[in-house]
Design goal:
Elements (H helix, E strand, L loop, with lengths): L9 H5 L5 H11 L3 H7 L5 H12 L3 E8 L5 H8 L2 E8 L2 H10 L4 E4 L14 E7 L11 H7 L1 E12 H6 L1 H11 L3 E12 L4 E10 L1
Parallel strand pairs: 1-2, 1-4, 2-3, 4-5
Antiparallel strand pairs: 5-7, 6-7
Helix pairs in contact: 4-5
Bound molecules: S-adenosylmethionine.
């Protein structure tokens, strides 16, 4: 018997994704309804929390920010609302990027697989990188931190907002501990709080400073 699938139930599948291809197909299909399901119906909290965390450590204005895994642009909208105006977004789903373009907050958008290391982006070219909701099962994996940190200027910031289920999986905290103990980053904020209140999902916000 086939399972009935509502048009707005993409979230229930999001934590069972296990490969990059499955994840890409998931977001290609979700792009048109993501903002309603996540932003409007379920009070997605991480974009605002991450923008506020960056604001606590880096001045708003024209600092150059890469919103990595920008999706439909909810994270960029929150950064713009916090006063940041020089935003670039990237994602591996062209459909999500199309939606992001309609928000009018990004100067540039480009397609990339963040697990491949951002090979076309210059070293130390951004003041900050944000990764909001992108570290997760079958999504962006802990080792992608290396490429994301490579493109941040020394003294710049890396802001991560993620659901606590993936944090508890363990690979990302282990990677962050390893980067901290090797002196590559300094962890300056780690806050627990709402991720997606409409689904009672909690999450973490981290701000890492590149040494
Ligand atoms: C939950 S959405 C978050 C989007 C946006 N940052 C937000 O907060 O609304 C996760 C995004 O990560 C993107 N993504 C997942 N894996 C990726 C990868 N390996 N490379 C690039 N983008 C990826 C998806 O296409 C999707 O747009």
């Amino acid at each position: 018997m086939s399972k009935r699938r509502d048009a707005d139930d993409h979230f229930s599948d999001a934590y069972s994704l296990s490969s990059a291809d499955e994840t890409l197909q998931h977001y290609r299909a979700w792009a048109a309804t993501y903002d309603k399901e996540i932003g409007e119906d379920n009070d997605y909290a991480q974009p605002r929390r991450c923008a506020e965390a960056l604001h606590a450590v880096a001045p708003a204005g024209s600092i150059r920010i890469l919103d990595a895994g920008c999706g439909t642009g909810l994270s960029g909208v929150a950064l713009a609302a916090a006063g940041y105006s020089n935003l670039t977004g990237c994602d591996f789903s062209p459909e999500m990027l199309e939606q992001a373009a309609t928000k009018g907050v990004y100067r540039t958008l480009f397609e990339t697989d963040l697990n491949e290391g951002l090979a076309n982006v210059d070293d130390e070219s951004y003041d900050a990188v944000t990764a909001v909701g992108v570290f997760s099962f079958g999504h962006v994996l802990a080792d992608a931190c290396d490429g994301l940190l490579r493109v941040i200027k020394p003294g710049g910031h890396f802001v991560i907002g993620l659901n606590e289920k993936f944090w508890n999986e363990g690979a990302l905290p282990a990677k962050i501990d390893q980067l901290s103990s090797s002196g590559f980053i300094q962890e300056i904020i780690r806050e627990h709080g709402d991720h997606l209140p409409g689904h009672q999902v909690m999450g973490w916000v981290l701000v890492l400073k590149k040494c």
